[in-house]
Design goal:
The complex is a heterodimer of chains A (307) and B (171).
Chain A lengths: L1 H10 L5 H21 L9 H11 L10 H19 L16 H22 L3 H32 L4 H8 L4 H4 L1 H14 L25 H25 L6 H21 L5 H30 L1
Helix pairs in contact in A: 2-10, 2-11, 3-10, 4-5, 4-10, 5-6, 6-9, 6-12, 9-10, 10-11
Chain B lengths: L1 H21 L2 E6 L5 H9 L12 E2 L8 E5 L2 E2 H13 L5 E5 L1 H5 L9 E3 L9 E3 L6 H13 L12 H11 L1
Parallel strand pairs in B: 1-2, 1-3, 3-5, 5-7
Antiparallel strand pairs in B: 4-6
Helix pairs in contact in B: 2-5
């Protein structure tokens, strides 16, 4: 029975199928809202699903000059990373299915696995657009990773625990959005950078470098990367919503909160044009990190004074 | 048991066809056009016509594309590039020839530097006439191509084998 329960956890409810479907649904919401804001009708509700099935059924071309094992393996590792990260997060407001002290650090690292895999996948090929996309992906990884992590560690300092379950049970009664607005903003924009959405989509700018690191991927590999990105979108939104917007809640309310966050992200996508890669790095290291550090300092001083 | 296997395979095929019809990603290639047709293609991709309703998206990479939109008669220099772009696309792939020049060479037919229409170089699945065709005509052409993928109408699809032979002779 225990084994069956574990298999169910890994493959169906928080782990596998549910997360993939939720990822596709969020991708549709993102595209539909973007279309509506651009005065278009937008894609039909099954569009992301049709895209993924079509890509899975397509021929996979393995270009010359790549390491075939890496070329085939990297999308699988990326998807596995995002799916594993979901096990430690309170998806749809339910308690995380697995938890141990320090799982916040593990989750943040599992979330970076996708970007790292995309960077490696791009640099694995000989194509110039892929290489340029890979360079930009990794540059962007180094720029947003520190502030994103610092902003997720802010709630951890307040609570005094590295466990996601502890933090979310504390934030249930405290909206950290009010006491740590800078951390919230940096986490949200960091998520946009992580998912390479506009305006931080320099790594896959289709008007400059075709599709960035994904240029040489066709069929299955590209489909898996898309699924991984959808899963990461869900996990990232869940983390930000549960840390900053009132912890675990009624599933419906929680979904509404994540959708509200997605709406803010889509608004930023429509309002702001793409930043150059040097502007992205400047944004994070000149403003993002500094602001979060200032907030940290304030929090530590306040904690010292209060105790 | 064998019947079940057959049923399963049929269902899989149907799901695949459904996905292909609903998510055609296009790639645009100009092999010597006067840019009239290209501008009409771009017009078809604008929010006014909103092709994302049908799942049509413009991709930059031939590796992601399902449908190759070709414009213009093929110049001798572009013939090799056109063939290479076509070969870089993963199966299943479809080609749409857009505009009079892509159909037959148009006003450039018989020029010293023109091979003729797209079909002289690569197999074509759908032809959209016009000089240039309106965006509505382009959308209609792509839609008819996709409708021909449905099993009931598959008999109407031109066999790519026949065109492949012609391409061999003419290239």
């Amino acid at each position: 029975m225990d084994i069956l329960d574990k298999i169910f956890t890994l493959l169906i409810f928080p782990g596998g199928l549910f997360l993939l479907i939720l990822g596709l649904a969020y991708e549709w919401v993102d595209r539909k809202l973007l279309a509506q804001l651009q005065n278009r009708i937008g894609p039909r509700w099954f569009q992301p699903l049709a895209d993924v099935i079509k890509l899975l059924a397509k021929e996979e071309v393995i270009p010359e000059g790549v390491n075939p094992w890496l070329f085939i393996g990297l999308p699988i590792i990326a998807l596995a990373g995002s799916l594993t990260a979901a096990l430690y997060t309170p998806l749809v407001g339910l308690p995380p299915s697995h938890s141990f002290p320090g799982d916040l650090i593990v989750t943040v690292y599992l979330l970076s696995l996708l970007t790292l895999c995309m960077g490696l996948a791009g640099s694995n090929t000989l194509d110039r657009f892929s290489l340029m996309g890979a360079t930009r992906t990794l540059t962007q990884l180094f720029s947003y990773e520190a502030p994103f992590m610092l902003s997720l560690l802010g709630p951890a300092i307040v609570v005094g625990s590295w466990r996601i379950a502890d933090i979310t049970s504390y934030t249930e009664n405290h909206w950290l959005l009010l006491s740590q607005p800078i951390g919230f903003l940096v986490a949200l924009i960091g998520l946009i950078g992580k998912l390479e959405m506009p305006p931080l989509d320099a790594p896959e700018a289709e008007t400059e470098i075709v599709a960035g690191a994904m240029t040489e991927y066709s069929g299955r590999g590209y489909a898996l990367f898309r699924l991984a990105k959808g899963a990461e979108l869900v996990v990232g939104l869940t983390l930000v919503a549960s840390f900053y917007m009132g912890g675990m809640a009624n599933p419906l309310l929680f979904l509404l909160k994540t959708l509200l966050l997605l709406l803010v992200m889509v608004g930023l996508q429509t309002l702001i044009t793409r930043l150059r890669i040097d502007q992205t790095v400047g944004l994070w290291w000149r403003y993002g990190t500094l602001l979060v550090l200032v907030q940290w300092l304030g929090m530590i001083i306040w904690k010292g004074v209060a105790s | 048991m064998r019947l079940n296997g057959h049923f399963l395979r049929n269902t899989m095929e149907e799901i695949k066809t459904w996905a292909r019809i609903n998510s055609p990603w296009v790639l645009h290639f100009n092999s010597g056009s006067c840019n009239g047709c290209d501008i009409e293609i771009l017009a078809a991709l604008t929010p006014r016509y909103d092709l994302e309703r049908f799942g049509i998206k413009l991709r930059g990479s031939p590796r992601h594309a399902d449908v190759l939109l070709c414009t213009g008669g093929v110049t001798l220099q572009q013939a090799d590039r056109l063939r290479r772009i076509y070969e870089q696309m993963p199966e299943p792939k479809f080609v749409v020839a857009i505009g009079s020049c892509a159909l037959s060479g148009g006003v450039f037919q018989g020029c010293y530097n023109i091979c003729g229409g797209i079909e002289k170089v690569i197999p074509v699945n759908a032809y959209i006439p016009g000089c240039p065709p309106r965006p509505e005509a382009i959308i209609d052409g792509v839609y008819k191509l996709l409708a021909s993928l449905k099993p009931a109408e598959r008999a109407l699809e031109p066999s790519s084998h026949e065109y492949g032979d012609r391409a061999e002779v003419n290239s």
